[in-house]
Amino acid sequence: MKVWQIAAGEVGRYYEELFIEHDVMFMGPGEHGKFDDQLYQKKVELKQLTNHKKNQIGSFVNAPVSGDIVLLRKGYYIDSIGVVPDEGYHWSKSLDDVYGWDLQHTRRIIWQEDLRTDLCKIQEKGKNPLFGDRKQIPTFTAVEDQKILEPLTKLFDKVKTRELKSFKFTTPEPLSMEMFGEELFARGLSNESVDKVVNSILRQRRLGKWYSKNCEDKIRPTEHEVVGHMVLPLMLALGWSEQLLAVEWNKVDLAGFSETPTEREKCILICEAKRLSHGLQSAFGQAQGYFEKLGLKNCKKILVTDGMKLYVYEMRNREWSDTPCGYFNVEKIRTNHIAPKNTNAIDTLLALTPGRIANDMPR
Length: 363
Description:
Elements: E1 3-7, E2 9-10, E3 13-14, H1 16-22, E4 24-27, H2 37-45, H3 51-62, E5 69-74, E6 77-83, E7 89-91, E8 105-108, E9 110-111, H4 116-122, E10 140-142, H5 146-149, H6 153-156, H7 177-186, H8 191-214, H9 223-237, E11 245-249, E12 252-257, E13 267-273, H10 283-294, E14 301-305, E15 309-316, E16 319-320, E17 326-329, H11 345-351, H12 354-359
Parallel strand pairs: 1-5, 13-14
Antiparallel strand pairs: 1-10, 2-3, 4-8, 5-6, 6-9, 7-8, 11-12, 12-13, 14-15, 15-16, 15-17
Helix pairs in contact: 7-8, 8-9
């Protein structure tokens, strides 16, 4: 028996519950298709993939065998223990957008949910994570450190096999820009507004590709550039006016108001922007902090974005839900997503129009 560990995302983009719910583990990038050593080596030579990542994927695909143990890692903390079944590697097309990541390389794992409480005790409810003395940990690798393995030995003896849970991830194909425009028009946007939104999205796509190819040092885009070059043009296309959008307002990256003058009680939307490809789940907490500190009692929506991905949160029963009610991926516009679940890109954009936010009553 060999022991492996796999990361369930990173700060701002954790997806461990998808692993547990479907008895699966997955990793990326998977955009190059089903793993083949020669094919992926060519991607390395073309500098489309690092050799380190290629080797990790190869290990994930070929190394684990039936009966091996897998540790599900969330940061430095082990969230669950699983055992490898007889079923092997599979490339799943539907996992091309999980919180913005393409994670199509998959393997089934029988996760031991009944051991999660014991794991919590061993790690003192997260205060003593077993990977706590590591700085950089690969996404997937073998675990041979006895400091990690020894406390878990008794739990390994409790691992059991069972029938695998259902694993049926299906998502619709991304909309073409023509279909995207038709969907917006069918939902009530005028021809003029549809053209503005479509053109704004095309601009964001071009700029996002340029940043990815030409700004490998990660210095650009800054958060200010994300707001100025990517978020503001889209909001204006959705019907906001410059008068009702305040940039860097009371330390809020972008604030939307129902009317002028732009006072606190008229703030109905706040936006927290992060740099391109930054994990965004944690940004919601920062925006929520501004909501509370500034006393924005009439704010009804929170938008968090890196310019290419947008998450919308709303208040329900006088409390903010920490589960996004909307998700929009500029590069892959879909009417349903795996994560966040049951989110529709068209609904998400329409929910950000000033009229919709102003008319929505708090739930």
